[in-house]
Amino acid sequence: MLQQFASQSNLKRKGQTTFIVLVVSLLFASRLFAQQSYVGLWDAYGGFTRIMQPNINLAEPGFNLQAGIRLTTWLTGGFDYSIGTGQNILDSGMLIPSVQGQLAAQLGELMELGAIPPSYKLAVPVNTRTQSFQVGPDFPIRIFQSVTFFVRPNLGAIQILARPLPGDPIAQAIVAQLVPAGKKTDWTYFYGFGGGMEFNVNHHFALRLQADFAHDHLFNDLLRAGNTLRFSVGPAFQWGKNVAGR
Questions:
Q1: Rounded to 5 degrees, what angle do the CA atoms 192, 198, 203 make?
Q2: Looking at the DSSP assignment, which residues form a beta bridge with residue 237?
Q3: Helix ranges restricted to H, the chain
């Protein structure tokens, strides 16, 4: 009899626990899947960014700024600017084949003359600053209340300023030949895609995480073609008229 009563009590407690878990899950799901009631007309973001160009082993920490206007709940038009600074080591393998061949012939002659050892490898530290400029759309996905996903095409312009710092006389002579001014600036266009997510803390504040891929060819007279990657994280703000109309 006691065992039967204890078994019934255990079943009752399990039933109560299951009911509580079910209610909490439904409440959480209703919040997660509820559509967003407020979508501000204006949007601004500023955060840490990391710009990377793997083909030249370059990573530049910096700052990313974005500002936009919500044209509808699913379309944002805006401006994107980023800047980063860094340093890499430029070697002959990063150069286009014609420049590689030219340098290989010159270094070969110097090795035959005994001016440099056969083991000499060209390696030049380079300080860099990269800026990107972009105007275009974002496409938010607002089916969740707590999280907003977004995707976008990337089309814009990118600028890089490079200052080589040769450390030996041979490298200095090569840099003087390839970069007579001691620094080199290049502009080019890029195209690609990006996206990310926002964790909505409240109606006006969110934490944005995003990543972008862009194809470009910077310093095409010297360097091989490559791609640029950008990762960014920081606070986002929205305010103004409710585009959702609620």
A1: 135
A2: 44, 205
A3: 2-33, 97-112, 169-178
| Residue listed under structure tokens 């090569």 | 174
Average pLDDT over the chain, rounded to an integer: 88
CA distance 77 to 69: 6
Who contacts 127 (Cβ-Cβ below 8 Å, separation ≥6)? Answer: 85, 86, 87, 162, 163, 165
Please state the domain count of the chain.
2
How far is it, in rounded angstroms, from Cα 120 to Cα 11?
A: 79
Determine the pLDDT at residue 13: 53
Q: Which amino acid is at 11?
A: L
pLDDT digits (tens, 9 = 90+) for 59-78: 999 999 999 999 999 999 99
Distances from the Cα of 199 to the Cαs of 101, 234, 239, in angstroms? 51, 11, 16
Nearest to 61 by CA among 70, 50, 71, 69: 50
Task: Note down the domain range covering 23.
Answer: 1-33
Please report the pLDDT score of residue 113 as a whole number: 86
Question: In the chain, which residues have pLDDT < 50?
Answer: 1-9, 11-12, 14-15, 18-19, 21-32
| Residues 63, 16 share a domain | no
- Report in angstroms the alpha-carbon separations of 87 from 35, 185, 207: 45, 15, 29
φ, ψ dihedrals at 238, nearest 5°: -135, 145
Does 59 lie in the same domain as 146? yes
CB atoms within 10 A of CB 208: 22
